[in-house]
Records
---
Amino acid sequence: MSEITFLASSKPFEIPEEIQEYNQRREFENEEDYMFFSVREASKDWLQEVEPLFSMPYIYEAEGVGNGLFLTYLEKYMETGDLLEVYRVPNQHIFPSYKKKVQNEPELIKVNTESYIYRDAYGLYQLKPTNWVEELSHQNYIAQNSITTFVKY
C-alpha cells in the first residue's frame, strides 16, 4: 500500500523556515518528536488526475499533513484569506476508485483557523481559541472520502 496526499493552495505554497529547520533535524529526544512536513509540486501525471477535484490553482504532493508540523503551519503561518485543500489517498494504486468515491459521495470537513470552527458530516464544533490546535489534533481532519478545506477568514 502506498499512500499519497495532495495539497492545493490559493497561492504558491512555501514551507516556513522554522519547519524546514525541524525537517532537517537528525536527533530527537523521543520517537514522538520524529515528524516532518514537506510539499513538492505534483507531477504532471498526478496533476492531470487530481486537478478536477480541487478548486485551488496550486497543487502539490504533501507528506506529514497528519502531524504537529502541519498544525504548526496552520496556527502560525496561515494568513488571512488563505485557503488550503487536502486530499489523502490511502492506496495510490487504486486511485480511480477513491477518486470516484470522493466525487460521488464526498464527506465534508472544513476547518476555519481564524474563527476556530471544525465542521464535518456530524456537525459544527467550536474549538477553544486557547488550545484549538490541540483540539484539532484529536479530530479526524483528514479522511479518505473527503477533500478537507482549511480557511482563514
---
Amino acid sequence: MRVLILLIPLLAGCVHPRPQSGPADFHSPNLERSLQYWTANYSTHPVNHFYVCATDLDQGNLVEALVYWREAGRLLDYMEMSPGAEAQSWRLRPKVDREALTTDEDVSLGNHVVPRRVWLRWVNQCITDGKAYVVPLKQAQAVFPKLKPPSPPANRPESP
C-alpha cells in the first residue's frame, strides 16, 4: 500500500504527452497561424517567443505539440487543426511556475498539476529541442483583430 501511495504522484506526471525524439523536425501548415491567434487574443507583450516541441507526429506532420510561451511562463498543448479552427487548437498545460510545487506530495490525484521538476524538464526540452517562433503582437492583431462590441443604436424620436 505504501508503494502505491508513493507511485501515484509519479504516475500523475506520466499521463501527459512527452516530447518525441527530434521534436523540432516537423511540418505544420497551421501552427504559425494558431500562434498568431493565441498572441492576438491572450498577450499584452509586444513580442512573444514560443518553443514548440512535437509530442505526436504522423509521417513528419505535426499532430500534437507541447508549447512553452516564454513571456507568460506557460506550457500549452497544441493540436493541429484546420484553418479557421485556431481557437480549438489550444489547451493550457499544468501551471507550476508561479505555484512552486517542490515535492511529489504537493501533487494530488488531479492531472492539472505536476511536480515542479517535471514541469521544468518539459520547459527545458521545449527550449533546447523545440522549434522557436517569434510572434509580434501587432502582426498577430493584424491577422486576428479583436472584434469591437456593437455600438448602441442612436436614439431616434419615436414617430406617431
---
Amino acid sequence: MAKKILLPLFALLVLYLGIGLVIRFFASDETRIRWLVAEMEEAYNAGRPGSCVGPLAKAWRHEGYELDREMLLGALFQAAREREKETRQLRSKVDVDEDAVEVVVNGEHATLSTRAVFWRLRAGSWEQSWHLRIQADLVDGEEGWKIVKSRHEDLAGTHLGR
C-alpha cells in the first residue's frame, strides 16, 4: 500500500524538479538577470549577506565610492546583526521595484537599471530611509551572469540615514 502512494509522489516530485530544470535551462538572459536581482533582494531581507553578494564579481566596484565586494559584505553582515531585541526581526529591509527593472543584453555583456527602497524599523513601524536608482554592468562568464560594476543615484534619503 505504501508503495502505491510513494511511487506517484516520487514521480510527481521528479516531474516538478524536471520542469524547474527545463525552465531554468531555457530561460532568457534577461530573465536570468531578473532572477539575480530578486535573489539579492530576498537574501538581504533574510539577513544572508553571503547570498546577497553572490552575484557580484570578485573584482566588483561601486562607482563614486571606494566600495568593493569585501567592504559591502562587511556592511551587510552589520545590517544582518541589527535586529529587534524582543522579536529578533531585522531592522532593515529592501524593496526592489520589479516593474522598474530594465535589462539590456548585448552578447556577453548586459546593463541593468532599477529602483529600490530601503526601509528601517523604528519604534515598531517601517519608515523609508533611502530611495535610489541603481545601474549595473554585467558579464556572462563561466559562473553565469555577474555584476562587475554598479553606481546609484539618490532619489530620496541617503544610505547614511540609518
